[in-house]
What we know:
This protein is of the alpha/beta class. It has 5 helices and 38 strands.
Amino acid sequence: xxxxxxxxxxxxxxxxxxxxxxxxxxxxxxxxxxxxxxxxxxxxxxxxxxxxxxxxxxxxxxxxxxxxxxxxxxxxxxxxxxxxxxxxxxxxxxxxxxxxxxxxxxxxxxxxxxxxxxxxxxxxxxxxxxxxxxxxxxxxxxxxxxxxxxxxxxxxxxxxxxxxxxxxxxxxxxxxxxxxxxxxxxxxxxxxxxxxxxxxxxxxxxxxxxxxxxxxxxxxxxxxxxxxxxxxxxxxxxxxxxxxxxxxxxxxxxxxxxxxxxxxxxxxxxxxxxxxxxxxxxxxxxxxxxxxxxxxxxxxxxxxxxxxxxxxxxxxxxxxxxxxxxxxxxxxxxxxxxxxxxxx
Length: 344
């Protein structure tokens, strides 16, 4: 695709186009990161990108960047065409979608799929090999259900969803519209509910449901459990990385982002816009406020107010954690001084 065509594409997108400086309107065939990009490839550069110092070494034919005079002057001196936008990352994502064709699944139902008579499948759906769709399932239009997926009874699946291979969706789960569930994820499995009695564990039946609102994306090998009663709820626009565990009865708000290996224990309530970095753990029945950010390996044991940035184990305000971390490094020295003072 010619650079000028990519400019037209970006103008119609969401990255807020500012201007373009095209020194040679050549064809762009691929995209690559700045450090390995070569001729006929496009890359992107943000103001705070550490690769900015290596800009003079790139062989990219075009670069999407922000309106930074220093960067633009350097690109002009290197004769590298550039497209200037407010958000280079979003523009680059739109370019990727245009340069690389998506695999197109022609609406059809594979002969090996098993669909119970009481189930209903909407229009323009793709149902792949060895898919199982259980009793009283209702599936909307334009869904893609890829091979070896199992959908058990009384599931409700809205429109325009993609269920990748080998997923399991348990009974009474509801998935709204435009969701993506990646391979090997399990939605609606039994919550971890056991009652101790006389040195044994008595199982608490898990008869609740899972509700997933629109535009949710779930990574590979994630588990979202159903509760004994009531619902586990995932709010609209929330995104999950791989290996995320959502316990029974958890309530997750809108537009949250959970990185890999996040674990949220049963009954916790997560507000809107919450960001949990890798390996964050949230205790059961804890309430995490809106727009909270928790750094990697953070352990959240008590309620967190709106807008807080927390770190550490147990979690504390990030500034307090940074001060504490600097003290931890000096503990051996401080302990030595205390022993000397004690002797005196």
